[in-house]
Here is the input.
Amino acid sequence: MPDIIQLLPDHVANQIAAGEVVQRPASVVKELMENAIDAEATSIKLIVREAGKTLIQVIDNGKGMSQTDARLSFERHATSKIKKAEDLFNLHTKGFRGEALASIAAIAHVELKTKQEDQQLGSCLKIEGSTLISHENISTSTGTSVAVKNLFYNIPARRNFLKSNTIETRYIVNEFQRVALAHPNIAFSFYHNENEVYNLSTGNLRQRIVAILGKKTNEKLVPIHEITDLVEIKGFVTKPEFAKRKRDEQFFFVNDRFIKNAYLNHAVSSAFENLLSGGHYPTYFLYLTVPTNSIDINIHPTKTEIKFDDEKTLYAILRSAVKHSLGQYNVGPILDFDRDATLDTPYNLKGTNSPNPRVMVNPDFNPFKSEEQKSIQFPYHREKNREWESLYNGLDSTGLDFRSETADSVMFSEEKENSKTYQVHKKYIVSSIKSGIVYINQQLAHQRILYEEFLANITVKDAMSQQLLFPLELSFNTADIALIKEIKDELESIGFLFGEIANDILVIMGMPVNIIESQINAIIENLLEDIKNDIPNTSFSQVDIMAKSLSKSLAIKTGIKLDLKEQEDIVNKLFLCKQPDSSPFGKKTFITVNIDEIDKEFNN
Ligand code: ADP
Ligand code: MG
Here is the structure.
């Protein structure tokens, strides 16, 4: 047998390695920004076009590279950051693998411009798919610019798997935020398709957080500072009343590196115990500094996971530090700490409480209850569906025959005369039909009804809107505001009316008739979450996600008592739907039991 093992050519090996380092445009953003930080830049500019699919460029004013280094930087395992294995335990840089530039250059068109301070001329290198195209001397400013074009141009499968621009941009914004939050002493700017998304000047941590997440964040922050032998903890949590229904504002940094750690997250959450209502999560920005030799960051290629030597102690310290601070600001229950502890800070938050309404969802909300006419305000344009109509034929005379006299008089003392429906367990609407009995799940049925209504309204654009007496000012972060702008038209067509949409403020002047004011923040937050988490690749699917999200938020829930009129309303509207038998999420909305089957049971 001949020998069959060969060494892979470099460009193939690089392409394979690239798969691990570069999952999506955001991975490139992270690597390039981290290189700029490692080069001690004080100002970093990120330019992105089409969610990074056509261009990602990072320009820094760091120390630059010599001619030779510029060429070498694209070799695999070429790094200036470590020399020997032991250095891994004393890392002060973000990078150390020497893989990023080699990987990126293997799967994109890259142009590097770089100059060191003492050089007259800098270098410009062009590399496409690991091949050096040109290397010239140019005049350029001190620092480095790396432009990455046409990512995955030679791996179509990868390119095709990229998500919509909305989603990929979201990933990029997340990476940008993480890096910018970790380095308030560096100025950052971020442009997407020529629009300025962020322009962050240097400042302290609080200023950086506020610049990224919006002005209103300021009054929500409770500072934390704790120094022990094992760790120094700095940063902020937000007051419990500002907890969110989403977890995307939870940030841990260890030695200025963003990390995810479920165990430490638990430590923070448990400090908030009994302070949060269900489904709400604390927002936090926590910066841990630990000795470099007490962590191992080498366990995950994208380096957001980290192993600590003494996780249990860290957990306890973190938990008590958070509890302590919440107590200091009178937001916690009685604590087992001395109040005169060392945690005094320059920030006096007392008396700066925002008068804003708290975000709370009323679980008993019933859209039919508050205003009787709401349920009939939705315009109906569709013809009655013949097929479903037949289900109800011959019902008048026999309606609800199966109910006993007693149950009847208890449940429907007033309207029992000609009632056709009956609610059981505050969950199902039961009704007699020609062939037997139908059981309708009130929540799922109402989801279907609202879903079709929203879809119809988005396309027909004639939804009813209720003007608010006092416009509502909501605070969102810049990235969320950008997303809201993107779906503004659709939101308006289902009844939202917007006033000012600023960098981090959204003013609502009117809203769909079936929404109540106190719910609106939660509804929009849910909507943004759903859009971010889904995979909308066309504008159609974005509309679909919106309709689904709103129908889920607004449908009457299990556990709500419905009066007869409300029950009938659901039954009637359900069977006017185009697809009455399933919820927007594919669950059955009703089941039927045939009278023959019932008969059989009695004839046994
Ligand atoms: P790593 O960051 O793990 O060392 P990279 O492939 O990201 O590997 O970069 C390779 C080398 O190129 C770095 O070690 C650094 O010396 C140099 N380099 C990369 N980007 C920059 C930059 N923006 N400014 C200065 N030097 C850089
Ligand atoms: Mg690097």
Notes: The CA atoms of residues 36 and 60 lie 6 Å apart. Residues 31, 34-35, 95, 100 surround magnesium ion (ligand 2) (CB under 6 Å).
